[in-house]
Amino acid sequence: MISLAELHEVARQRLAPEHYDYFAGGAADEIALEDNEQAFRRLALLPRILPGSARRDVAVNLLGAWASMPVFVSPTAFHRLAHSDGELATARAVAAARTVLIASMAATTTIGDMAAAARAVDPDAALWFQLYLQSDTEVTDLLVRRATDAGCTALVVTVDSPVFGHHERDRRHGFTDLPEGLAAENMRDLPGGPRNIEMSPVLSWDDLERLRASTSLPLVLKGVLHPEDARLAVERGFDGILVSNHGGRQLDAVPASIDALPRIAEVVGGRVPVLLDGGVRRGTDVVIALALGATAVGIGRPVLWGLAADGESGVRQVLELLRGEFDHALALCGGRGLADLTKDLVTVRGPEVGKW
Ligand SMILES: Cc1cc2nc3c(=O)[nH]c(=O)nc-3n(C[C@H](O)[C@H](O)[C@H](O)COP(=O)(O)O)c2cc1C
Ligand SMILES: CCCCCCC(=O)C(=O)O
Question: Name one GO cellular component term (predicted).
Fold first, then answer.
């Protein structure tokens, strides 16, 4: 495979149509979904010349975890729909690539088993846990405890989902439940028995403060698009912002993640890491996002395509393709390291009339 697009095509052919559409789809008219990728194509890079070095250092420290490149894996649900090895394959592949995996609370494998699979490949594998706050605080606390015991070193709280997005592809297929034998495993062994994941509009900043007080792990807020929310998050002491429109699966009328990034990066002003996901498919997308202020970027669907195409090996291919493309793009931009990626490198496609 020579590009993520090719792996996507193989995955499309291998997956049952209702599972492919669950993974691929977005909300409503899928405007935000498409715009996430299109927005990168509206931007262009103005490379610098004569870097004077053949060495390029692309490792980055993300809240204490060393990632070998500024690309991490965003949380996605139900990996065993893509491949029978599911999240175990993903965990092994991401550990082998020495980057951060954000495990979904809606995984079809427990966080403990994912951690064990990752640590068998690399004892220092970096694993974070994604959380939807549950109105039953006993459940939230138990999940946090299990993630902590599994060795997760940060919690990523998804805050863009007061209600579940409308996915018309799923409705068309009547896809409402996981097939027999698959479950959101983290939600099974709970007081009172298995629970569904709840999305609640009742949650507020107070609930986040409560979580803050209950754990010493760094907390990243995922799904921030408004600069004012980014400012509030930093002022309230949260440890990172993940700029994301949930892969276009929640509110359809939102901007592409990359379009929302510059104002948020400006407001945050380097006080905490600003992460981004949505539409990252090429090494040049990574370069653009870092130049516009991201510390690192996440990928969601490409991992599912790799998994469906070829299990652990497919996920490894996805990460190594992006690593190679990113390094190549950095070299072509005249960069020697991440600090060379500054916003003057990015321009909007079209003539530069009057800009100089
Ligand atoms: C099938 C699927 C499942 C997802 N599940 C979750 C989830 O459980 N928790 C979450 O916070 N985000 C979830 N997301 C959103 C991703 O974390 C991420 O924001 C998005 O996929 C990034 O966009 P990309 O797919 O274009 O890379 C999911 C996305 C997809 C496509
Ligand atoms: C009610 C099940 C929740 C799974 C959440 C997965 C998700 O975030 C998605 O976008 O799909």
Answer: cytoplasm
Q: Is 59 helix (H, G, I), strand (E, B) or coil?
A: coil
DSSP 8-state assignment for residue 339? G
| 122 CA → ligand 2 middle, Å | 29
199 belongs to a structural domain: yes
Cα(247)–Cα(252) distance, integer angstroms? 10
Distance 299 CA to ligand 1 centre (A): 8
What is the span of the domain harbouring residue 320?
Answer: 4-28+54-218+296-348
pTM of the model: 0.98
Evaluate whether residue 272 is within a structural domain: no
**How many folded domains does the chain comprise?**
1
Residue 43: strand, helix, or coil: strand
User: How far away, in angstroms, is 115 Cα from ligand 2 center?
Assistant: 21
Q: Is the ipTM of this complex over 0.95?
A: yes
Angstrom distance (rounded) from CA 265 to CA 267: 6
Token pair belonging to 26:
């977005």
Is 174 annotated for ligand binding?
A: no
Q: Which of 114, 158, 153, 98 is nearest to 132 (CA)?
A: 158
Residue 23 structure tokens:
């993974």
β-pairing, 65-67 vs 60-62, is antiparallel
Nearest CA to ligand 2 atom 4: 106
What's the CATH code of the domain at 145? 3.20.20.70
Write down the pLDDT at residue 356: 54
- 74 domain-assigned: yes
- The Cβ of residue 236 has, within 10 Å, a number of other Cβ atoms equal to 13
Measured CA to CA, the distance from residue 209 to residue 109 in angstroms comes to 29
Q: Which parts of the chain have pLDDT scores under 70?
A: 354-356
Testing ligand 1's pocket by substitution, the residue of 21, 30, 74 carrying the most ligand atoms inside 8 A of its CB is 74
Residue 263 domain-assigned? no
